[in-house]
Every structure is written in structure tokens, then in C-alpha cells.
Amino acid sequence: MSKFRGIILEGYSNAGKTSVLKSLKKLQACDDAERSVVILSEHYSQILHKVDGELKWLGREEHLQLLTERVMMLKKLNDWSREIGQSERSKGLFFILERFHLNHRVAFSHTILDEIKQLEVELFEMGARCALLTVSPENIEQRVSSRNPNEWVGKPEEEMKMACDLLLEQQQEYRNQAVNSIIPTIEINTDKKDWESYAKQVYFLN
Predict the structure, then answer these.
(1) Distance of alpha carbon 60 from its chain centroid, rounded?
(2) Cα(150)–Cα(178) distance, rounded to whole angstroms?
(3) CA 163, 166, 171, 177: dihedral to nearest 10 degrees?
(4) Per residue in 156-178, pLDDT tens?
(5) Which residues of 126-153 are buried (b: 16+ CB within 10 A; e: fewer)?
(6) Strands (E), 41-182
(7) What gap in Å lies between CA 49 and CA 85, rounded to an integer?
């Protein structure tokens, strides 16, 4: 019988999700046993989208529907692979998702619905494991400024402090929400930017 296996990368914008995702792709490409692969970056699941050049923030129900559609898509693909006998020569469908259930929980932490909990149950049954990427407080400022250096030129220190404080608050909220989720989660500190090492930790989660 075909089995699901999946990884969910979570964390705030400067934690290193994109870098780890790139390393995961390279690592997965060397694994001959995994033949059916679906990788969805944050553009397919995040709350903030750019539509016709304008930013659009999805509401709680809209985002929940988006996540549900992505999970249903993965299930249908896995069902199809079983129907055509793909399971006879592969471990089943392997997926990587970026910014998914924890992103939803953090954004709508005051109004958590049973629907997101049910979606997490489905993801758990699909073999999903989560990696929460974090950065130490003393390295937050460097990580923020390195992403868009020109954006911070000439800005007051107080503005940078506010941005760092906000990210630290978000990081702690991610931790809090991970504890409340059924999906097994490990926290990986990315201070050393050793993306290949982090990818291996994530890839071999079980």
C-alpha cells in the first residue's frame, strides 16, 4: 500500500525556510526510493498574496479553505498513484509544504477553529512532520538587515528594534502553537546557516 510522507517548514520570514527548502530539493533528488514528489513553496499556502500588483491578506476562512484545497490535492494525487500501481515501485507520495498550519495558527491565534485542528489530523495521518526554524535573539537584527539591506539604510535604530521585537514575539507564538498541534514538530536553530545540515535533520524525520 502506498504511504504518504511529508515535511512542513515553518517559521517567520527571516528564519531560513527558503534556504532549507533549496537544500531539501537537492537532498531529495539523490534519493532514488522517492519517485513521486510534490513541493509547494509558501506562494501556494501563505496568507499574504500579491494580486495584480497589490497585496491581499486572506481572512481566516479564506486561508483555511486554501489549506484544505492543498491537502485534498495531495490526497487525490496519492489515490491516483495507488490506482495506477505506483506504490509497487515507490514509497508513495512525498511532499514538502512551506508556511502551512502553524502560519495559520499564528495569524489567527485568537480564533483557532476546530477545522484547522481537523486539517492537522489529516496531515498527521498523511505522515506529515514539521520543522520550526528559529533564530537566537542576538542574531535577529543581523538576519533582518541582511535580507533587504537597502531598506534599512538611514532608518532609526528604534525602527529596527521594533522589527526585531515583533519577530521575537512571532517566534515565541510559533513555539506555543506547535505545542498545541498534533503534528510532531522539531525546532531547528539556524544561526550557523548550515542549510545542508538542517535539511538532513528535516528530511530524515520519522
Answers:
(1) 18
(2) 34
(3) -150
(4) 888 889 989 999 999 999 999 99
(5) bbbbbbbbbbeeebbbebbbeeeeeebe
(6) 48-51, 54-57, 93-98, 128-134
(7) 37
Residues 100, 74: Cα–Cα separation, whole Å: 14
Question: For cell 525546532, what's the residue?
Answer: 187
Helices 114-125 and 60-83 cross at an angle (nearest 10°) of 20
The residue type at 120: E
Per the CB < 8 A criterion, the answer to whether 105 and 172 are in contact is: no
| Residue-wise pLDDT tens digits, 44-59 | 998 877 677 777 889 9
Q: In sequence order, which residues have a C-beta less than 8 Å from that of residue 190 and are 6 or more positions away?
A: 15, 16, 19, 20, 133, 134, 135, 198
